[in-house]
Write a structure and sequence with these properties.
Number of helices: 2
Number of domains: 1
Largest sheet: 6 strands, antiparallel
Distance between the termini: 65 Å
Strand content: 35-45%
Structural class: alpha+beta
Number of strands: 10
Length: about 120
């Protein structure tokens, strides 16, 4: 009986922590302006910056570079995750044919691998 009460208390504590956990806020800076990235934002890809056209800062699977065939696609941000130990953010995105992530969203924007997020055009 004691184990059951302890298990119930742990589950309740976990659920409260899960429901009220703060969403990570990923921010980017472009031309001196700061923008927040949120789950559900649309992201348009440019071209990969590796020599053969694959992406340098966008990865699929286990750290495999996103191939050049993903260029020009429109994607949705599905997950934001913060890693306290390395003080980095993981931004996960997907479209009909692609699922990928980045730990370097600012660098991907600077290299024009990401050309637009929502209505913010980074080609201007």
């Amino acid at each position: 009986m004691q184990n059951r009460k302890l298990l119930t208390a742990l589950i309740a504590l976990f659920m409260v922590n899960f429901l009220y956990a703060e969403n990570p806020k990923v921010t980017i800076v472009y031309k001196g302006n700061t923008y927040n990235i949120n789950v559900g934002d649309t992201v348009k890809l440019g071209y990969g910056s590796n020599p053969y056209g694959s992406f340098m800062f966008l990865m699929e699977g286990a750290s495999k570079a996103l191939p050049k065939e993903a260029s020009g696609t429109i994607n949705i941000v599905t997950k934001l995750k913060y890693y306290k130990s390395s003080d980095t953010y993981e931004v996960t995105m997907k479209s009909k044919n692609w699922w990928f992530y980045t730990f370097n969203i600012q660098q991907a924007i600077d290299k024009k691998e990401i050309t637009r997020i929502n209505n913010i055009d980074f080609n201007e």
